[in-house]
Input
Amino acid sequence: MTTRHFGAPVRRNEDATLLTGQATFVADVRLESMLHAAVLRADVAHGVLGAVDTSAARRMPGIVAVFTAEDLGEQWAPFPLLVPPPPIAGLTFNTATHVPLARDRVRHVGEPIAVVVATDRYLAEDALAEIVVEVEPLPVVADIEGALSADATLLHPHLGSNLAAHAVQQKGDYEHAYSRADHVVSRRFVYDRGTSVALETRGVVASWDAQSSELTVWDTTQAPIPIRNALAARFGLLESQVRVIAPFIGGGFGPKVMFYPEEVLIPWISMRLGRPVRWIEDRQEAFFATTQERGQVHEAELALASNGTILGARDVFLHDTGAYAPYGLTVPINTQCTLLGPYRVPAYYSEFRVVFTNRPIVTPIRGAGRQHGVFVMERLLDFAARDLGLDPVEIRRRNYLRPDEFPHNHQIYFQDSAPLRYDSGNYLPALEKAADMIGYAEFGARKSRARSEGRRLGVGIVSYVEGTGIGPYEGVRITVDPSGRVRLATGVGTQGQGHFTSFAQIAADHLGVAVEDVMVSTGDTRHFGWGTGTFASRGAVVVGSACEGAARAVRRKILALAGELLEVAEDDLRLAGGRVHVAGIPERGFDLGELAVRANPLRGAVKPGTEPGLEATSYFAPDMGSTASGVHAMVVEVDAETGFVDILEYAVVHDCGRVINPMIVEGQVQGGVAQGIGNAFYEHLDFDEEGQLLNASLMDYLIPTATVMPKIEVAHMETPSPLNPLGVKGVGEAGAIPVAAAFAQAVEDALSDAGVEIREIPLSPERVFELIQRADAEEGP
Amino acid sequence: MQIAVTVNGRLHERSVEPRRLLCDFLRDDLGLTGTRVGCEHGACGSCTILVDGESARSCLMFAVQADGAELTTVEGLAPDGGLHPLQAAFREAHGLQCGFCTPGILMTMLPFLDENPDPDEAEIRTALSGNLCRCTGYQNIVKAVLIAAGVATNGESSQ
Ligand code: FES
Ligand code: FES
Output
């Protein structure tokens, strides 16, 4: 097989549709006699919900119906737990999941209370103002650290505590490591909340067709198949009666893998009213009603030998899950596991408590807890290096796992309930390459030169690993169409990752067709009905591997049939240019379309043991995730007068195994870094003590713009994964994961003479300025 | 209210409510859904169109304010079904991922390039600063604009 397309920077199949405005996003779906929904949301963070009077709203012009929890009847039920916790010994796990519409109690600002359905969205929103809600306010648990205090009000009184979960995972004997350590660094770290800000807000359009008894739902979900299955179960329909379509999605980043109230309410209302219904979240709602992430507080410790060798690590942290915990332990377990990084850590004690607070719900956002672990470990290494008189690069070098230490078993559970085991890796060359790209060796001289001109430069360089490509499985069906083009269908949704192209590249290589002749369908349960979704950087790994399997199977069918018809051995056949032909005799063969017609005979039976058509379905189920890795380095300039930080240079060396399309991978990395930079310096959800969000707009919550983003240099390293036939590892989240750690190191370096220590994220110009002031004050005149 | 607007060269006469946003009018009344809505408060730029040749945010205008105006939306960039050179440059440079911000960015860059046929990277970044993109980190968008301006080809990494 010639691998012409795999590994090449092939231009994307999906671009023309997107560039010309022809692509259909959920908000573009317009149906005959469609109604429009708007959601009334809680405006206090905690309270006992009394009467909800909708009578005035119902009388407003254009209003078709108003629904509250009471109207839902049997459909009112808490949502299922989406991810069960791993079998950790001694685990405490208190489930409390969200509900479709609040009944009895509201637990965060933005929790849905009622839905108005009108002939027009403007009228629906007018009527929201006429609904009268009685809420008796309760004391608000606004703060992660106050949640477990004895006098904290309970969010879920039946649980008897605001503790959602408590887990300890350990390997080796940390106490022993501690007792023989030459040096121990311990610090407290705070990582605060941010949000995903996909440029497309969420939306659902549902249409119940009574004639065919079919429900069709367009949904901005990253996981349409689980949504279909859940809707069918809830409404007592066959799965075949429900079609969920995740069309083009305007960015996912994690929060679009959920089971949101509107995903049940809008289909249910469509069935009730017998008319299509559309709901599109507005930007302000998105700040409350779409899930968020990142709030954690760590007390962490690293025990080392005097030469900088890690003997053990200890971390005890709190994780804020918000008002409900539908996503189980995915985020804190990612934190727990990712903290170990690329390092040899013989002893590890990690304990976390997940707490309920009166804030919006927390579920994974790009990185999904990994950046917290990386931040804690990398910061501890930086402090240890300083104390021990080592260079930050040197201390990392001394602790990396060597290539001969793989597979490396960390003896704790990862988020997918499989053991945390690294499949492969080669870390040191990445570090050296990144140091080279950023000019690390000469940086000291550059820094002093700049300092003598009154400028403060700093450098940061950190490592990370990322568990990617987890199970359970995905599938792909590939069909040669009589037109000669190839249809490829998979169940996962796509949110800009280039699936229409990278999956096509894999198929094109095996079938000898052009990449643009492979028509990829993603995220439509009618086209492919088995699988889970796009999350945890798994698309390329799991679906890509299934593509490989299906493409090979179709190739075998092509060769078998052509061999039979042409009466030649299969080995003598070639697939190229959309044809199968005898080697050296291009005219002796078939166009694939023609062969597809032959494979579907009008006369004559399909022989026993064969199937019609040139089609195959294949599934791939990895036993465990593959571990990608990388190093990020940056040079910053800090203005000590204003606290402003300018990122001057940024280098990424990443290793996601074999690369299907380097252009797409670089784009993923660049975008991830942008989100990481936002997370490190620009973005902060500012909640007050009453649980009110003070910056719920894109005017006040700042995501990076083109003027603040540096140019990012990306270098690829390829350490293939042994866990899948392509040797690939995921890359979707990688860019975002180590940025905060690198940023903190660089800013601290720039302020080294001011004695600033950074133990928190996000920073901001004001906060950097404050830290400088405080360090000055502590040092005295 | 009765309005008459020309969109992508075609005249539309409609009656609209005074409070109807121009973006909703384009998307829902005329079915031109290529103009995307990311915030409805003028912050993201994804709803940008041309109003009498100038970039404007269609979520910050009422449809009635467009009465008598000539509008161009992304659907009007390459009416023949192909790609406008700017669109082709975005494909060439991988200047889009989810593509949600893209129509607004194209409609911002179009008049920018008319006025600045030979921009440098810093000028492009400034011109882009009112358009949010959450996927790309902007690097390849800048590259696409440089390609469209003829300042770079994809082969050279000139930005
Ligand atoms: S939708 Fe108009 S600027 Fe965001
Ligand atoms: S490409 Fe997704 S927001 Fe720009």
In short: Chain B touches chain A through 59 residues (CB under 8 Å). Helices of chain B lie at 22-29, 85-93, 102-115, 121-128, 139-148. DSSP finds five helices and five strands in chain B.
